[in-house]
Amino acid sequence: MIRILIFLAAVFALGLGFAWLADRPGEMVVTFNGYQYQVSLMVAAVAIVAVVAAVMIVWWLIKSLWNSPYTISRYFRVRRRDRGYQALSTGMIAAGAGDGALARKKTKEAAKLIRSDQEPLIHLLEAQASLLEGDHEGAREKFEAMLDDPEMRLLGLRGLYLEAERLGDRNAARHYAGRAAAVAPQLAWAAESTLEDLTGRGDWDGALKLVEAQKSTRQIERDAANRRRAVLLTAKAQALTDSDPNAAKTAAVEANKLAPDFAPAAVAAANLLFKQNDVRKGSKILEAAWKAEPHPEIAELYTHARPGDAVVDRLNRAKKLQELKRNNAESSMTVARAALDAQDFSTARREAEAAIRMDRREGAYLLLADIEEAETGDQGKIRQLLSKAVRAPRDPAWVADGVVSERWAPVSPVSGKLDAFAWRAPMERLGQLIDSHEGTPGAEVPAIAAPVVSVKEKPADVIYHPAVSAGKTPVTTGAAAESGEDLVTPVTAAAFAAVPTDAEAVEPAEELARLPDDPGVDPDEEAEKSPRRFRLF
Length: 537
Fold this sequence. Notes:
Pfam families: HemY_N (PF07219). The protein is α+β, with helices and mostly antiparallel strands. The protein has helices at residues 2-23, 41-97, 100-113, 121-132, 136-146, 153-167, 170-183, 188-200, 204-216, 222-240, 245-258, 263-275, 279-292, 296-303, 311-324, 329-341, 345-358, 362-375, 379-391, 430-437, 478-483, 523-529; strands at residues 27-32, 35-40, 397-400, 403-405, 422-424, 453-455, 462-464, 475-476, 505-506, 533-534. Mean pLDDT is 78; it is low at 430-537.
C-alpha cells in the first residue's frame, strides 16, 4: 500500500513538473564537438526522464539475471520448508490425539524437510512420539538433550519432571521443578512443586522468596500472595519460638498484619508478645482476630494472658470477649468454661445452654456434663448429656485431606499442600447420620465417605480412626508402628461412636461412658459389655 502511494506521488510530481514547463516556454542550446543543438525545455525534460527510466529498467534486468540462481533456490527452499511445517503440524495434532504411528511418521518427514537445529519443535514431537510408543527411556534422552538449548531448556525440564512424577521419584521431580522455578518463577507447575519441597524441608525463608517472585510475576493475585506469606511467616514464627524469640515475634506480627483474621498468626503473635510482657499489644491482636472470627485458641490464650490472674479475672476477660462478639456460640462457650473454673455454676450453665441453642454440637454437651458433675454429681443427668453429645455434630477442628489435627500446621501431612488445614467440623459419624434421618418416611441414609483420621500429639504418633463398628483398630505410626504394638484396644459401637478427643484409657470405675439416650438401657449392664473405655472430657 505504501509503495502504491509513493508511486502515485511520483507520477503526480512529474505531471506537475511538466505542466509547469508547459506554461513557461523556453529553449535549451547545447554545443558539442563544434555543433550546436537547440531544443525546447519540454523536449529536454522528456528526454532526461526517458533516459533515467531506461537506465532503471536495464539495471533491474541485469540484477534479476544476476540473482536468478538464488531466487530459484529460495523458491524451492521455501516450498520445502512449508512442506516440513505442514508435516510438523500434522504430527503435533497426531501426538495430541494419541496417534503414535502417525506422529512418528510425520516426525521423520519433518526432520528430512527441516533442519532440527533450526526448529526445536521437532525434538518435542519426537519425544512425544516416543512417549506414545512407550519408549520412556528414549523420551527422557530427548528431554535431557533439550537442556543444552536455552530455548528448549524449560521444555526439557518439564518433560523430565513429568517422567519423574510418573516413576514416583519425588526427589528428582522436585529437583527439576526447582531448576525451572529458578529460571522462570512464573511457571505454576515448577513454583508449586518447589514450594511444596521448601515447606516440606522447613525452608520458610526460601518459600517466602519464591512466593514474592510469584507475586512480582503476577502468577498469583496480591491477596493470595499475602495469604501464603502469612501462612509461611506463621510457620517460621512457630519454628523460631524457642531458638530466636525476637525473630519469631517479628515474623508472627508481620503475618498478623497480612492476615488479621488468620487465627494461628494472631495466636502466635500474641503468645510471643505475652512472653515478652507486652500484654496490651498482644491482647489487641487477639481482640481484633476474635472480632473477625471467634476461635477457641484465641479465647484460651486471651483469658490466660496473665498467668497470675485469679479465676474471677479470667471470667471477666472472657466476658469482655463476649461483648466483642455477641450472639455467638464460641463466645458463650468461652464464658461458660471460665465460669466453671470460677465455680459460678449458674453463669456456666446459662452460657452453655445458650451455646447449644445457637450451635448444637458435641463440645457444648460435654461442657454441660462437666458443669453437672461439678455442681450436683448427678450421674443420671451426666450420662444423659453424654448420650446427647454422641448424637450431636462434632466440634470444629483443623482438618486437611481427611486428617484431623489438634493443632494447626502449615502443610498437609498427606499431600504436602500449603495452607491445607481449615477450621471446620469433621465428617459426620454414622450414628449421627442415622439419627438425623430417623423419623423421616422414605429417607435414605447417605453413603459414608472414607473415615476421618485424627492426628494426636502423642509420643507414639498415634493416628486414630473413628471406629463405627466393633473390631476397628487404630492405625499407628512412628515408634509404635515399627514395634508392631496396638496402642488402643478395639472398642464396641455401643460404647462410643467415635474416638474421643482425649484418648486416655481409664479404669471402668472411673469412666463416664457415652450411652444412648434411652431410659430402657441399664448403664451398669452396658458398662460390663465394653472391655475398655475412654475418658471423654
